[in-house]
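Exercise (ungraded).
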Amino acid sequence: MTASLEVVTLEPAADQLRYTFGGGEPLLTVAPGTVVELTTEDCFGGAVRGVDDLPSRVCEFPYLNPVTGPIAVEGAEPGDTLAVHLVEMAPVRDWAVSTTFPHFGALTTTHSTAMLHEALEELVWVYEVDRERGTCLFRPRRGGPEVELPLDPMHGTIGVAPAGGEVFASITPGAHGGNMDTPEARAGTTLYFGVNVAGGQLSLGDGHCRQGEGEVCGTAVEAAMRTVVVVDLVKGGAPAWPRLESDEFLMSTGSVRPLEDAFRVSQHDLVTWAAQLTGWDPLDAYQLVSQAGLAPAGNVVDTNYTMVAKLPKRYLGGAVAVDGVHDRLRETAAAYLGSR
Amino acid sequence: MTASLEVVTLEPAADQLRYTFGGGEPLLTVAPGTVVELTTEDCFGGAVRGVDDLPSRVCEFPYLNPVTGPIAVEGAEPGDTLAVHLVEMAPVRDWAVSTTFPHFGALTTTHSTAMLHEALEELVWVYEVDRERGTCLFRPRRGGPEVELPLDPMHGTIGVAPAGGEVFASITPGAHGGNMDTPEARAGTTLYFGVNVAGGQLSLGDGHCRQGEGEVCGTAVEAAMRTVVVVDLVKGGAPAWPRLESDEFLMSTGSVRPLEDAFRVSQHDLVTWAAQLTGWDPLDAYQLVSQAGLAPAGNVVDTNYTMVAKLPKRYLGGAVAVDGVHDRLRETAAAYLGSR
Amino acid sequence: MTASLEVVTLEPAADQLRYTFGGGEPLLTVAPGTVVELTTEDCFGGAVRGVDDLPSRVCEFPYLNPVTGPIAVEGAEPGDTLAVHLVEMAPVRDWAVSTTFPHFGALTTTHSTAMLHEALEELVWVYEVDRERGTCLFRPRRGGPEVELPLDPMHGTIGVAPAGGEVFASITPGAHGGNMDTPEARAGTTLYFGVNVAGGQLSLGDGHCRQGEGEVCGTAVEAAMRTVVVVDLVKGGAPAWPRLESDEFLMSTGSVRPLEDAFRVSQHDLVTWAAQLTGWDPLDAYQLVSQAGLAPAGNVVDTNYTMVAKLPKRYLGGAVAVDGVHDRLRETAAAYLGSR
Amino acid sequence: MTASLEVVTLEPAADQLRYTFGGGEPLLTVAPGTVVELTTEDCFGGAVRGVDDLPSRVCEFPYLNPVTGPIAVEGAEPGDTLAVHLVEMAPVRDWAVSTTFPHFGALTTTHSTAMLHEALEELVWVYEVDRERGTCLFRPRRGGPEVELPLDPMHGTIGVAPAGGEVFASITPGAHGGNMDTPEARAGTTLYFGVNVAGGQLSLGDGHCRQGEGEVCGTAVEAAMRTVVVVDLVKGGAPAWPRLESDEFLMSTGSVRPLEDAFRVSQHDLVTWAAQLTGWDPLDAYQLVSQAGLAPAGNVVDTNYTMVAKLPKRYLGGAVAVDGVHDRLRETAAAYLGSR
């Protein structure tokens, strides 16, 4: 580790967890470039531990989907860009859970897609997590083959304080980030958020051992996480919607309804971003993204739906995004990991 | 080539091209298991050959998106499953085109998403196609880097005659297939269609040198194609919506609006299919798909939007879909390719 | 009746009923201005006659929602406007029916809004129709107050042959009209359709003793009807979407998904229409419609959803639509009614 | 006025206006049954006074759509029902304004329905308000007939503090009410809100001299208002979504996206409400509402869209809603008006 690497720890107690983006005092304040080792609780607050722990019984609204934070970043002002590099995340326990939550999910009546059906049956699945082998084990509740799935840890919920004094439940994704539930938020990725309030106020949680695209049933393989991030600041350049960068891809997100509008927002942002980076006319960028982009669903279950628009960086003629902060944070992460 | 391999050729003249699914006499009738070598014209009927050939001038409604077919399959009856294996497809010419078509695309006002804006500017992009190197070259119209993209040929439009005597324009995707515009329809993949009328009446066209997910601007790298398919028949088992199978994935599709309903249809079909193959309860299948599935956009521009739901076959406990026809067609394809 | 009033009768036998728009030979050809006395069967083909006649048992796909027609209009060519004035409609029988059809309706899982729920229970309601008193009687199946509702007869389905050789099931609404299911299609109203094929090919059916806006459960108070229309032709001026005119309102329709796009289409058409009639700039018409328009749902259950945009004619500065054909047809209707 | 009629006045200064629902201290606390005479500023904060006052120049985010309140109601606890009767509302000034706000409206690209178009031209319309004659005068900006429209004053924005500690911008409608923008919120109507926090915390604003259904261009005939309400409390019975009652109708609302989900929410609530009031089985209520209900759009422009579901009270077999509070508040209103 280089002498300059600042590492701090954030392990909130249960009563320090938050349930909103916006509105609270920061739990921690860090300088740009700081490595934060932190823990997050699962989306059920750890209350679902077995197949008999039905969420509708053991969880209490609005104490769902707790997040760790907010982390204020020194010097962050509205209009700046908060860069959050995900260094690593690992499930804390040797089990994880998923459920069908009544009136939640893509293939069920919900409070918004209101119908006269009774709720689907509420079931809990407990996954065995084997961190050594890097797997989690799916056990069907009613027979049929068990399936060993690879761990692919991610945070479903990560974002900053919204603009305009709004306070959103942590289950809501939007322009501030939040509960986007995209599997792209995995280790090795940098997320960019527009800063709306002083300090930016980063929070994250809702760790998933893995998640399919769309999060169809409404919950992933939910787990408390031990996570390391590097938090950095780029002055100005605030993106309108959260963006992500991996070694291979630039990614834009859109979190609204209906799903085609989430698609439009994410694609519009990616087109605009690519045009700005390369000097292409927007219509030229529109053309290139149309032929070379990917468009996976994030979630189609939350209060807003999330689509992700991805473009391989190799198709940008050598352009570098956000002043190259992703590469620098990769180096910081490597230095941190090498120093342990 | 084994003695039993039947190979026929279908190269329709311009006046033999069709513009609908349903309603016409078959252009060819084949026995199940037949290899068909065929050609398809591009979605502009070959009329857009340079940047000055604006589609709104050189194309005439409804003579858009021509398809080759219908190909009747002997013995196919309503309720059966038509299996179409894509053996190979290659662009016919050394160029391909894409355009912004007025009032068509995801980031523009359209006839359905009607707004008071003028149409976006109509532009044509001509790609150089290098079949040797397997690339197509994107040249921005207004400066900035050129980009060499890998060829990844596919058919945007493939399907059968609809049910109930309906006749749909070839630009419409739906339960009959049609203009799904998913990049998954590439060589090595088998598509399954429910048969609605005697013979099934397969048609295909709208070849793309490559296409991004969502086909954001409304057109891909459009090219006339030389394509080889194997057409086979499985009695009974008609899927409600087109399904695809590759060596790695089972895939379901949904083509409706809004996009979340296309997502729901595709995921519902995949969940139901996985449950049927494995013996899982539908809620168990719902759970597994939620954690292990992929959900890329097909198109978000056509008269219906298409979502694809994908599940790795290795998570199905060894279950085999559609009586193993995919593997058999892979063998047929190998035999055919080996015999040339 | 004036000497010039031509009156013809069209009472198709059961095997003459049609189930699509587009694709068949006309059942009748009339000169513009002809009064047509016709009968229509109910959407169940008359097969649901009591609470035990569940549609899923007594009806057979695709023999649903029969229409009377097509009626070809002499001289009608693509680009012309077919004007259909509804003179009167009366239920034929002294009963009418409604049902919850499995997987059909706004508050249930459907084939498009696909979910893992079982279908809602299939129930039939039989209404007593009292033509003298002008009422139909709602009898709840499971107790609670009976309700006498006023008759307000309308046709759920009315339209012309689609463009481009397409053939649509009669349950589908669209730019050709079809199953719009708006209560605005009542006596005293003139409907305008753009002609797509020679003769226009008008068909209608799906009579409702009355219907709420949105047709929430999927079926109205369904009845066979005895209906009188005047069919007229205006050369040119084909509207892109069906329009309606009553003594008080101009109305535009949009029939697509999602519902906001149906809203957009209908409002865009009304704004454009108002601008054309008055000489307002489109932005001025947008402003006026925003303050003075009405926007009821037609249906939110069919394969496309329908919204209606209404503007009081008195806010148009004296402008007259479609060359005043509505007023002329009102006179024709009065002459016809006076002559009986 | 009876001796017991309590009347208080609330005329907030500019710096006392609020821009959110939730999160602030009450500006006034009243006992149930109090008549409140209050003023509201227009949605532009009074800054748009002429055609050159473009909102994008004279307004500053997030200081848009100010509301008067919150008004805390003594004894209101979560789960209770806040009843707000609109006694009268009158525009304060002899002019009112409307605009096309860039990226806002139903027929334009917005931040959610993101497209590559430039924003529509930003225009301001100034209406002359004649309170004596009860009219407001539309003057087209670019020629064509002027139109005198009847005043039909309403509040676009009215609601309570949201649940779960959330704070929403006043431009957002939802389960808490807010910016529903339905013309049904006119004098003579009682609104019912579920109480989420102690006191309920009622706020209102966004007065409109009149508004078309859907508020297509995004703004109505916007005016500062002098308004009188009676605020009352019913213990328990909190509706999930705002409900309205007039002398003739029960009304449910839904404010989500897409628009069909807003329709579903409103219809589901109306069906459920009707079933509860009459003793009908939910499927019987579904049937009756399908035949007798109305379904106008509220707004199709805000961050959530609003649909209204209406049922004539005369079809409820004499059932009385919310313990008859509407009739009692009508009497209170009459007493108040008679006493002036």
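Further reading is listed at the end of the chapter. For now, observe: Helices of chain A lie at 55-58, 259-278, 282-292, 325-339. The two ends of chain A are 8 Å apart (CA to CA).
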